[in-house]
TrEMBL record, chain B:
An individual GO BP term: transmembrane transport
Segments traversing the membrane: 12-45, 65-93, 113-133, 139-161, 182-204, 253-276
Family: Belongs to the binding-protein-dependent transport system permease family.
Mode of membrane association: Multi-pass membrane protein
Subcellular location: Cell membrane; Membrane
Source organism per UniProt: Ignisphaera aggregans
Domain ABC transmembrane type-1: 69-276
Top-rank taxon, per record: Archaea
Family annotation (Pfam families): BPD_transp_1 (PF00528)
Principal cellular location given in the protein's record: membrane
Protein name: ABC transporter permease subunit
Keywords per UniProt: Membrane, Transmembrane, Transmembrane helix, Transport
GO cellular component labels: plasma membrane
Length: 249, 281
């Protein structure tokens, strides 16, 4: 059993093919990193997993996708997303909700808690896991615009965790934040492995090396190489992977 | 010594200030003139201006405009509640499902309705509502006002909802919110200030409309009526009729009525500013 299992997945956006015959397998409780140059289809691949691709006009998915045992294309997307958290490239906490409410809303919607005490516990747990609790514990009723960019992104991670997901999708979560916050986020990701499977998109080979257990290299919509992080970083077998690791792509 | 660049910059700022003053000067002039003339009438007539009936042409007393105030409130309430409900739902539908055939139809109808002259709307409602009901009524006036305000409100609300960045819609979906839940819990709260301003602007449009009521409401100002099925009057209709008349006393009443309408707009504007807080993104 795999957390994510894709077989010959093709994604079309109108007439354009974004993903081509993608086949990959993600083990439970690992950090699986997808690397590739801009426009290679990394974000699309993530959006297929939780069917956020459905919200893109003209998108069509063909192929077999099983996530957490569910047949993704034949399963209710809203039910599916209850098991899958996601953090986006641009921090997007709900601006009309307080820090507390941003985390609490995810727990409440997904029926994770039964009462106020449980809700408070989950909010604290999620903020601790996202390594944000110490910075916001005295200002839970402030709004996200009062936080820094990196704190906002960690708040988004806490929101995703409050759903108690089994799978976490991270779309270049450190792309728009400073190195200190990026490192905190990386530490949080690594520490989450025992509780959740992580699929993460990144541009940076260094970041991938720090957090990944397994890596897939995507190029022009195709998986050109995949395997354990150690194997891929030490002995990349394709020219594309070698160029990517050298920062030439 | 100033460089040419600094002089150009100062000149540009001066031109901008001058043009801005020119743009707002007519509005300030209007507010001052209406306030001076209107408040003088309030003082002269006292509270009876808001509770009494309009004067006869040769009367010495100013009287009041109660039938017009009640008529305006009644028709505004009916029309605003229908308009806002329909416009918000239509805007949600067309924003969330822009390619849906119903959305396309709503958009096309809204655009065509917006271009119909208000006097023509009055004639259409006269034929469709006044004639079958065998009389003018506040209800007929409200229908006409709704037809005029609906495309206006719909266009504004669509614009407000579309202005919410897509990243928040995606965030809502990512925490397993349904589309409806995302609209109610995320999009509308983020756009609340814009929606409140839209309600205010629609209200102002309804309260200030004259032509749509000419053949529908009935211009009935002999008694105060709270019934939607009875003929009614509205403040703009009273102003229109009285300002065209040759009687000085009616001119004075028209000034008072205009000031009341203006003060109502200003009060609502500041109330919305104070009560509804903008969401900082």
């Amino acid at each position: 059993m795999f957390a994510v299992e894709m077989n010959n997945v093709n994604v079309y956006l109108g007439d354009r093919q974004i993903l081509k015959e993608v086949t990959l397998k993600v083990h439970y409780n690992t950090v699986f990193v997808i690397m590739g140059p801009s426009g290679s289809g990394k974000t699309t691949l993530l959006r297929v997993i939780n069917r956020l691709i459905d919200t893109t006009e003209g998108a069509r998915v063909v192929g077999s996708i099983r996530v957490l045992g569910f047949d993704v294309m034949n399963y209710d997307p809203y039910e599916l997303r209850k098991h899958i958290g996601m953090v986006f490239q641009v921090p997007n906490p709900f601006p009309h909700l307080t820090i507390y409410e941003n985390v609490a809303i995810a727990a409440k919607i997904n029926g994770v808690v039964k009462n106020k005490k449980e809700l408070n516990d989950v909010v604290r747990w999620a903020l601790e896991k996202a390594m944000l609790w110490d910075e916001v514990k005295d200002r839970l009723h402030e709004y996200p615009h009062q936080l820094s960019g990196g704190q906002r992104q960690r708040l988004c991670l806490a929101r995703a965790l409050a759903m108690k997901p089994k799978l976490l999708l991270l779309d270049e979560p450190t792309a728009n934040i400073d190195p200190v916050n990026a490192r905190k986020l990386e530490n949080a990701i690594v520490s989450l492995k025992d509780e959740v499977t992580v699929v993460m998109v990144t541009h940076s080979p260094y970041q991938a090396a720090r957090v990944a257990d397994y890596v897939a290299v995507l190029y022009d919509g195709m998986v050109v190489e995949q395997g354990s992080a150690q194997q891929l970083f030490l002995r990349p077998s394709t020219d594309i992977a070698q160029k990517l690791l050298r920062g030439e792509m | 010594m100033y460089s040419w660049r600094k002089i150009r910059e100062k000149l540009f700022i001066c031109i901008i200030i001058l043009l801005s003053l020119l743009a707002i000067a007519p509005i300030i002039h209007l507010v001052i003139v209406v306030s001076i003339n209107g408040i003088a009438i309030f003082v002269k007539a006292g509270t009876s201006f808001f509770t009494g009936l309009p004067p006869t042409p040769l009367s010495e007393e100013i009287g009041g405009i109660a039938p017009s105030i009640i008529g305006t409130l009644l028709m505004t309430m009916i029309s605003l509640s229908i308009t806002i409900t329909l416009a918000v739902f239509a805007a949600i539908l067309t924003t969330e499902f822009p390619k849906n055939s119903i959305s396309v139809a709503i958009d096309a109808i809204a655009k065509s309705l917006a271009s119909i002259p208000t006097i023509a709307v009055s004639m259409i409602v006269y034929t469709l509502v006044v004639v079958p009901m065998k009389g003018f009524s506040a209800l007929a006036g409200s229908v006409a006002l709704t037809i005029i305000a609906l495309p206006y409100a719909y266009t504004y609300f669509s614009m407000v909802l579309r202005s919410v960045p897509a990243i928040y819609r995606e965030a809502a979906f990512s925490v397993a919110m349904s589309r409806w839940s995302a609209v109610i819990r995320v999009l509308i709260p983020i756009a609340r200030k814009g929606i409140a301003v839209g309600v205010l602007m629609t209200m102002a449009r309804i309260m200030g409309e004259t032509a749509a009521l000419l053949f529908t409401a009935g211009r009935f100002r002999n008694k105060v009526s709270f019934s939607p099925t009875e003929p009614a009057d509205a403040i703009p209709l009273l102003i229109f009729d009285y300002i065209l008349s040759p009687y000085d006393i009616w001119h004075q009443v028209a000034w008072g009525a205009t000031a009341l309408l203006l003060l109502a707009y200003i009060a609502i504007f500041f109330a919305v500013k104070l009560i509804v807080k903008e969401v900082k993104l």
